[in-house]
Amino acid sequence: MQKKNKYKYVVTIDADGQHSLNDLNKIIAILKKNKNIDLIISQRSNFPRLSEKLFSLYTISRFGVKDLLSGLKAYKIEIYSQYGYYDTFKSIGTELSSYAIENNFNFKTIKINVLDRKDNSRIGGKIVGNFKILKALIGLIFKKFK
């Protein structure tokens, strides 16, 4: 028998130390004030890779969102419960938020400050990182969520 928990949201955050606790606290405050928000997506002001810029152009066109690649997001658990997956095609953390937007969940974007990375990128250097992001972009282009 599954035990019910009292949690309504799950927050994702990158492990590279680039997200500040101030931005996390901002997300928590927004969720406490507005119970109608299902998803919060943080947005960085710039992108270090060309592939991230291309990804951004596509997601602005399809979803109206500049930065789905930012790892700092808050999801209402209901989104995952309805979709059943977080990442089925190595989407670099963009699949569940894309599903939510295309299925008319209420979302909000917030600007964040990106801190200096404390070590190397976990997604890869310039060539490998760009390749993985472009591969995720191609997967997202062909993914239908409805």
Helix content: 40-55%
Structural class: alpha+beta
Order of helices and strands: EHEHEHHEH
In total, the number of strands is 4
Shape type: globular
Give me the oligomer status.
single chain
What is the radius of gyration? 15 Å
Beta-strand proportion: 5-15%
Mind explaining what this structure looks like?
This protein has 146 residues and is α+β, with helices and mostly antiparallel strands. The protein has one domain (9-142). 40% of the residues lie in helices and 12% in strands. α2 (50-63) packs parallel to α5. The N and C termini lie far apart (31 Å).
Summarize the SSE layout with pairings.
Elements: E1 9-12, H1 21-33, E2 39-43, H2 50-63, E3 73-76, H3 77-83, H4 95-102, E4 107-111, H5 126-142
Parallel strand pairs: 2-4
Antiparallel strand pairs: 1-3, 2-3
Helix pairs in contact: 2-5
Short description:
This protein has about 150 residues and is an alpha+beta fold. Helices cover about 40% and strands about 10% of the residues.
Short key terms for the protein model shown above:
single chain, 146 residues, alpha+beta, four-stranded mixed beta sheet, 5 helices, globular
